Amino acid sequence: MRTVAGKTDHVVVIGAGLGGLSAALHLRGAGRSVTVLERADRPGGRAGRLELDGFRFDTGPTVLTMPHLIDDALAAVGERREEWLTLHRLDPAYRAHYADGSTLDVHCEPQRMAAEVERLCGPREAQGYLRFAAFTEALYRTSMRDFIDRNVDSPLDLVRLNLVRLVAMGGFRRMAPKVGQFFTDERLRRIFSFQALYVGLSPQQALALYLIVSYMDTVAGVYFPEGGMHSIGVAMAGAAAKHGVDVRLGTGAEHLELRGDQVVAVVTSTGERIPADAVVVNADLPAAYDLLPERLRPARPGRLRAAPSCVLLHLGTRGETSHHTAHHNLHFGTAWRQIFTELIDDGQLMSDPSLLVTQPTRTDPALAPDGGSTFYVLAPVPNLAVGRQDWSTLAPAYQERLLATLEERGYAGLGASVRTSRIITPLDWQRDGLVSGTPFSFAHSFGQTGPFRPPNLLPGVANLVLAGCGTVPGVGVPMVLISGRLAAQRITG
Ligand SMILES: Cc1cc2nc3c(=O)[nH]c(=O)nc-3n(C[C@H](O)[C@H](O)[C@H](O)COP(=O)(O)OP(=O)(O)OC[C@H]3O[C@@H](n4cnc5c(N)ncnc54)[C@H](O)[C@@H]3O)c2cc1C
User: Fold this and answer.
1) Do residues 170 and 136 make contact, with C-beta atoms less than 8 angstroms apart?
2) Where in the numbering of this chain does the Amine oxidase domain appear (predicted)?
3) Spatial CA neighbour of 66 closest among 117, 128, 116, 108
4) Domain boundaries defined on the chain
5) 454: CA distance to ligand 1 center in Å?
6) 18 alpha carbon to ligand 1 midpoint, in Å?
7) Which of 50, 69, 435, 477 has the most ligand 1 atoms within 8 A of CB, as the residue to mutate?
8) Does domain 10-52+62-81+227-303+444-492 have CATH number 3.50.50.60?
C-alpha cells in the first residue's frame, strides 16, 4: 500500500463530515496530533441539523446501517459507542406501500421476513427471499474485505480468489436480472432493488455487486440514534475532542500552501496559517481540488457522471396525521423502469413518483414539541447536469405537488396539519458546493467504482489524502466511515 511521503506528526483534516471525523479518530488513535477545520458551525456535514419552530430535522441521511463502523471509529481512541449514542434497531426497517394498496414490512430477521413475504406473495416467493438473503450475505462477505475495506493501488491488486468468486456469483452482471432470479412478484423486485438509486443508478444499470446495499438495508438491520442522525457526527466530534483533537468549527480552509509537491500549511478563511505534515481533505471533490494551486488540480471531476439529486421536504406537524406508517416508508407509484429513465437520462421529474417518507418522531418523539411529528420526504429528482428544472421558481409548486401526492397515498389531512416546513432543492445542494447539485456525489457505474473511482491519493501532491463520498469506496454513511479509515491508513501505514 502506498502511503504519503515525509513526516506525519501533525495532520490537518479539512471537513468534519463523517468521513473526515472517521479519519481524525483513526489518526488520533494512531498517535498523530490532529486538527479538524470545519467551515460550518456544526460537525456531521451532510448529516446535519435543521431547527424550525421547535422541530428538529435531520438534513441528510436517515437510514443508518452497519453501526459497527461507528464503534470502530470510536474504539480507535478507546471510546465505546454506548457512552455516546443510544441506537434503536428499527422494526420494521421499512414499510413498503404499493400502488395496488398492499403493504410489506421489511424485517431484518430472515425467518420473520420470509413469513411476511409469504403473507403477501405466497410460499414460493418466501423461499426465494431466503435464498436472496443468503446470497446477499455471501456477496457482502466476499466483497467487503478485498474490494471495499481496502486501499488499492492498481486494478491488478484486485486479482484475488474473491474476484473469481464474485464473478462466479454474478456480481458483475446487472442488478435487476439478478434480483429476478429470486423473485417473480414485481413488488418484491422493487423493494430489494430500489437501493440501486442509493448508488446513483437504476436497477437495470447497477452492478449486481451493489446488492450489498440491499443486504445492509433489508437483511443486516436499520438503526436510528436517539436525537437523530446528526447525533452521530456530534458524538464522533465529541470523542475526538475528548482525546485531544483540536476540532475548530466555523473555520473554513481557504487554500493549501505547498513547497514543491508537499503541502506545508493550510490557510484558513481568516488568514490563519496552520502548519501541517499531512492533510486529509473531506470536502466534496471539486471543492477539494479548488484548495490546490491551479497547476495541481486534476481535470477529471467534470467528466465524471453525477448521481441523481433529490428534493427534501421537511414538515413539522401537529395532530394525528399518519395512518399506517412506520419510521421509514417507501411509497411506490405504478411506474418503475420509466422513472429511472426520466430521472437519469431525460432530466425530467418522475411522472409517477416513488418517495421515501421518514417519520423520525415515531422512534424519538422528543424531536418535535409535545403532540407534534416530523416528516422527512425525499423525492429523487434529476441533478443539475441533466435536469431542466428552474428550482428558483419551481420549488413552491413542487412542494404543493408533493403534499397532494402524499394526501393521495394515505396521509389524509397532512397539508392541514403542517405547522412549519422547508423545501431543499438541487439549487441548495449546489450552493453547498456539491457537484452537479446532488448530495449523492458520483454515480457508482462500473467506470466510477473501485479502482476507477477518484483515488484517495492525488497525483502530484505527496502528502494529501481524500476522504468522503467522492473518493473510495463511495457514497453513504458506512462507505464514508470506511473512507476515513482508509485515508488514515494512507498516512499511518
Ligand atoms: C438527503 C440525503 C439523504 C441521504 N440518505 C442516506 C441514508 O439514508 N443512508 C446513508 O448511509 N447515506 C445517506 N446519504 C449519504 C451520506 O449522508 C453521505 O454520503 C455522507 O454523509 C457524506 O459524508 P462525507 O464525509 O463524504 O462528506 P460531507 O458530509 O459533505 O462532509 C464534508 C464536510 O466538509 C466541510 N467543508 C467543505 N469545504 C470545506 C472547507 N474549505 N473548509 C472546511 N470545511 C469544509 C463541509 O462543511 C462538510 O461538513 C444521504 C445524503 C443526503 C444529503
Assistant:
1) no
2) 18-491
3) 108
4) 10-52+62-81+227-303+444-492, 91-221, 307-435
5) 17
6) 7
7) 477
8) yes
